[in-house]
Amino acid sequence: PYDVLIVGGGPSGSAAAVYAARKGIRTGIATERMGGQVNDTMSIENYISVLETDGPKFSAALEGQVRHYGVDVMTQQTAAQIIPPATPGELVEVRFTNGGSLKSATVILSTGARWRNVNVPGEQEYKNAGVAYCPHCDGPLYKGKRVAVIGGGNSGVEAAIDLAGIVEHVTLLEFSSQLKADAVLVHKLESLPNVTIHTNAQTTEITGDGSKVNGIAFKDRLSGEDRHVTLAGVFVQIGLVPNTEFLKGSVELSRFGEIIVDAHGRTNIPGVFAAGDATTTPFKQIVIAAGEGAKASLAAFDYLIRMPVA
Ligand code: FAD
């Protein structure tokens, strides 16, 4: 068995693995793929001390560092279930969809999250070429340009307010008849001179010139009119879904499906920790996921050294 078994090999899992392995304890990482969401990122400009890098480079560097410390890396592994210890202090078991199973004194869950897609023509085609999901990451790339935000919930309205301070103009599209965000955010948004809000707007297509986005098409659901706005970028903000379906019934989750963690990254199960985008920790960013992974790993180590001697 492992001392620390990490499930999920993105930035949070990789940081957890490096911290655990450097303690000289048996460390394994089981993941669908190494690098996580970072693989799908074009340019990363906000990882502190790294002026600019790209997703594949960053991901390869993560994996290189994890392997450097002799961590057992198991890819193409999808966890299906976690079996808590029968009594505190016993091993935790993780079962995988391929029928395999691993046991460990502690487990760190770092399975990340995925952005919900709008599923209209152009979205997949222009991902990283005008279609974006993270205003903190990609907002500055659209300085002086016109963009749209799809989604009028808290994340969409926050994104629109954020972007309005950077870009020339923001068009916000909300499917339903009113914005769902908190009133204070809606008032802030409505006070901004360079924002246009369309409610009852059903996005029908993200248009492009073959290499990058050049506009967005939507249907006004009241009048039935088809409209098109010319712009350079579209931020899709209709939800971030944590990859935690397999934990339902075993680990305590928030109503959004996020793993509930305390300040040490502890879950409700003794010996099971969590970090990164899959958890209730706010602001889903690489630097935050990495920091939280390191923290959960140190918390797991703390737990291990307090285990009674057999
Ligand atoms: P993830 O990166 O999501 O990694 C989780 C890993 O777990 C994945 O490899 C996944 O396959 C695996 N996994 C999931 N379920 C299971 C399971 N059941 N069993 C085993 N393995 C599983 N952040 C920035 O700071 N700067 C940026 O510029 C930036 N740009 C972004 C651009 C895009 C297009 C996207 C999608 C995100 C971007 N982000 C950016 C956000 C950043 O990528 C995430 O915050 C970060 O990757 C989260 O790390 P994580 O380790 O928590 O999860």
UniProtKB/TrEMBL annotation:
One of its GO terms (molecular function) is NAD binding. Keywords: Disulfide bond, FAD, Flavoprotein, NAD, NADP, Oxidoreductase, Redox-active center. NAD(+) binds at residues 146-160. GO terms for biological process: response to reactive oxygen species. Its EC number is 1.8.1.-. One of its GO terms (cellular component) is cytosol. Residues 2-293 form the FAD/NAD(P)-binding domain. Disulfide bonds join C134-C137. It comes from the Bacteria. FAD binds at residues 3-18, 267-277. Its cofactor is FAD. Binds 1 FAD per subunit. Belongs to the class-II pyridine nucleotide-disulfide oxidoreductase family. Homodimer. This is Alkyl hydroperoxide reductase subunit F. It comes from Massilia forsythiae. The gene is ahpF.
